[in-house]
Amino acid sequence: MDIRKLFDMQRQLDERIETERGLRGERLVERKLLALLVEIGELANETRCFKFWSSKPPAAVETILEEYVDGLHFILSLGLDLSLHEGVQWPNVQESRPLVDQFLRVFEAVHAFRGQLNEEAYNQLVYAYAQLAHALSFTAQQIERAYIAKNEVNHERQSHNY
Q: What is the pTM of this model?
């Protein structure tokens, strides 16, 4: 995955949104953290991994992947906002945990990051999110392609006053 390319694309989207919405210079970290938590919850909801009371199957893989990259948009955006993106590499994760456990770890990583807002906590968040991708059986290439496609959709939405 070319994470530099994704950071550049995210920077362009963020600048567009902040300019068009009159948010230049406004601190958006707390809102982006909440948005990230909501997106992670939406992703968990689509996987249905925690819904022991239901026999309904998970959403289509494409839907789950789109939800995953929605969260990635906010992770990248937070790294840019706090200038924590320079040394970031997309981890090559080989270990797998049960999906419910991995979702809880990602939520914990977001909360830890919120409390510290530093490079170490950011890298741990990126790693936990990459572990979640592995648990969902997504490859770096699938994620990159889906991110690029969703980024285009996000720009289109901005053009239509989303």
A: 0.95
